[in-house]
Design brief:
six-stranded mixed sheet, five-stranded mixed sheet, alpha/beta, disordered C terminus, 39% helix, single chain
């Protein structure tokens, strides 16, 4: 495959000229002469046996063939630049850019940042709240922690955790408006962190899909629905990862002993050239080690024992999340 690649210098000249829209501007950027850029572009066109720029006019214009080539070349150079920057960083210093699912970022990662900082005091983190898988490929992000089905192409991916979903409610709200049975949910506001599919899945497991629930709020983010439940605004679906600390602190209570598995899972992903950088490796190792340590010392959240639990169909699922690797 390597012998089919065009020479690097002509590709660099082409990318700079196309991005700048001018041979003169490309020459200044690369600190070479105008003639050198022209020669490199001509050499690349001869190698590829196609014309990359339309001649004439004050500004360079790409041909269809040039427009096809440019994104791939730009992405390749961005990747090389990002990898080079990472390799220049010692394993215990520098800035690491993380994107993370909003709920996991706010309710799990941020409260545990001190543990990472204590271990690696010279690494600073730049955190972005997002579940956009396209950020895996962005040169502005080093590591992405995503909720999804996995299987993203052209990157390193590893399953971090599966998890369960179950109703959570504040003790204050529960004291003023009890939940003695699943049917009592119709007297509460249902808080959705998605389009409603998760609650439908849980109600189906409880054989209560026909239950009327006229009051509900859609927030599109599990972080917001969990926070709303914590403030007594209704009943949300929490999960065994992000809600665990709030449950342990008594800020949220699980009123029913029924959990359903989430449709997807949490994954850690990175571009292949980033995954091998020492600064990325120490964060990924810390991420998995922290989860494993907490599971060893903390039991899985269970229903409040003092609540009357009435579940019409005792189809319980208590998954034991495990880590598997893809492409490591």
């Amino acid at each position: 495959m390597a012998n089919r690649l065009p020479p690097l210098n002509p590709l660099r000249a082409f990318e700079a000229a196309a991005r700048r829209g001018s041979i003169s501007a490309a020459a200044r950027e690369l600190n070479v002469t105008h003639g050198a850029i022209s020669h490199q572009i001509k050499s690349l066109e001869e190698t590829l046996k196609t014309t990359l720029f339309e001649r004439g006019g004050k500004r360079l214009k790409l041909t269809p063939q040039g427009a096809l080539l440019l994104p791939a070349v730009s992405q390749a150079f961005d990747g090389i630049a990002a990898a080079t920057a990472l390799l220049d960083r010692p394993s215990t210093s520098g800035n690491l850019r993380i994107s993370c699912v909003p709920a996991l970022l706010a309710l799990w990662l941020v409260p545990r940042m001190g543990s990472f900082t204590d271990r690696y005091p010279e690494i600073s983190l730049t955190l972005t709240s997002s579940n956009d898988a396209e950020l895996i490929y962005s040169p502005e992000i080093d590591i992405a922690i995503l909720y999804g089905a996995g299987g993203w192409r052209d990157c390193w991916t590893r399953l971090w955790s599966t998890f369960d979903l179950f109703p959570v409610v504040s003790p204050t709200l529960l004291n003023t408006r009890p939940l003695r049975s699943v049917r009592d949910l119709q007297d509460h506001v249902l808080l959705h962190g998605d389009d409603g599919r998760e609650w439908r899945s849980w109600l189906a497991a409880a054989d209560q899909l026909d239950m009327p629930h006229p009051r509900e709020h859609f927030m599109g983010d599990a972080r917001l629905s969990t926070e709303a439940a914590r403030h007594g605004q209704g009943v949300a679906l929490g999960d065994s990862i992000t809600a665990s600390s709030l449950i342990a602190a008594g800020e949220l209570i699980i009123p029913f002993d029924l959990a359903v598995p989430a449709a997807d899972a949490f994954y850690v992903a990175a571009r292949n050239e980033v995954r091998g950088a020492p600064i990325a490796k120490v964060f990924i190792d810390w991420l998995f080690d922290t989860l494993e340590t907490e599971r060893a010392v903390q039991p899985r959240p269970i229903a409040r024992q003092t609540a009357r639990t009435i579940v019409p169909t005792p189809r319980r699922r208590a998954t034991s999340p495990q880590s598997v690797e893809d492409g490591e």
